[in-house]
Write a structure and sequence with these properties.
By secondary structure, the chain is α+β, with helices and mostly antiparallel strands. It contains one helix and four strands; from the N terminus they run H-E-E-E-E. The strands form two sheets. The chain has a two-stranded antiparallel sheet with strand order 1-4. The longest helix is centred in the N-terminal third of the chain and has 11 residues. The chain is rod-shaped, with a radius of gyration of 24 Å.
Amino acid sequence: MLNRAGKIIVEDTPISPIYYYANNYLIRDELVGIKKNSMNQFSLVGVYLREQKKS
């Protein structure tokens, strides 16, 4: 009986895969104006490199 109940649960339960995407990125301190949109994508409009300080 328990085996039959388990089989019914497996066959009748919808499967919904859960995804979680992680993005790793490095951004230089000299990069100015970079922004991410709601889709987690970078917009390069208005992005520029600031001049590096010389030591």
